[in-house]
Amino acid sequence: MNTTTEELVQGISEWLRCESPSSDPAALMRMAEVMRDHALRLGLRAELTQVQARADTPLLPLVHIHNRAAGDTRAGLLILGHLDTVHPIGTLAHNPVRVEGDRFYGPGGYDMKAGIYLALTALGALAQPGATTLPVDLLIVPDEEVGSHASRATTEAFARKARYCLVCEPARANGGRCVTARKGSGNTVISVQGVASHAGLAHEQGRSAVREMAHQILALEAMTDYARGVTVSVGTIEGGTTSNTVPAFCKCLVDFRFTDLVSANAVADKMRQLKPVGPDVTLDIDVEINRPPMVRDDRVAQLLHRAQQSAAAVGLVLEEAPPTGGASDANFTSAVGTPSIDGLGADGDGAHTWSEHVLVSTLLTRTRLWHHLLTHLD
Ligand SMILES: [Zn+2]
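# zinc ion complex -> structure
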């Protein structure tokens, strides 16, 4: 594999200058085309298709890059990445792409364009069919940061056909550890309909939706059970109109996490059974279990062992992070029964913030890790 740190920084920088927030289909398409064209220049086969969550949601681009010979349908090695970022268009003006010491900053670099770039660079050196024992598919989805509703079915279909799945999410900060277990996640939208009235003239006729929601928030957060690995967090609240109106409406967005599906269903049921505390108000509760947990079983342990051997061969110590509460598309690939390891992307820190950065000194070694994995997994 013939590349240098400078070339990696240069290539990743071009990707970071192509901003691609999850919410902007045109921007996602530009990024998808850049990735596809890069893969084609490396001699790989690459296709860009479009996926959709529902008939009334936008078409989003999805990139499939591979080194399969024509007609090769063997179970292979699936590499998974996402091309969307949490950073809106215009972030570059405040947080430009730059290297300061060992830190390489730019929106969406650590999470996860740099990780995809490293894997793709390794795969590009193995573009000829037969250069790897297993055929390799790199699937890059457009909507991981917002729940993967459009891409989930494709990811699961690829994962079902794969022998292993390796995911390009960022390596854990301070040591570049990989991830073998993740909590599952769910989202709940709860809204309260009350009765509006003048806060001064007719206070007694009002039924405050905000007051009711205050009760519900406490009930929701009380469902947190650290011992069982269950957390519930009310993340946003909106409601009311003016300070002198008893509010008729209030809405909250709730995040919940779990380590097993029994706990997930239990907490989801509790949420659905919430009842109004006050009179004359109604609750509307919409609960979605989004990502199932990523579970570390014996086959994952075996895959980890082999990844650690690859790491050792390129002079890297690959440790396993403790189970994390953050979910990713590895949750989907794991849940369909494909041994999966995540956190094999770039090493750095600061995901989802302006201090997001990749460590320049780790880029080449981690590219070599990918190359070793791709040539040794069978
Ligand atoms: Zn990510």
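# post-check
Residues 5-182+294-376 form a domain with the Aminopeptidase fold (CATH 3.40.630.10).
The mean pLDDT is 97.
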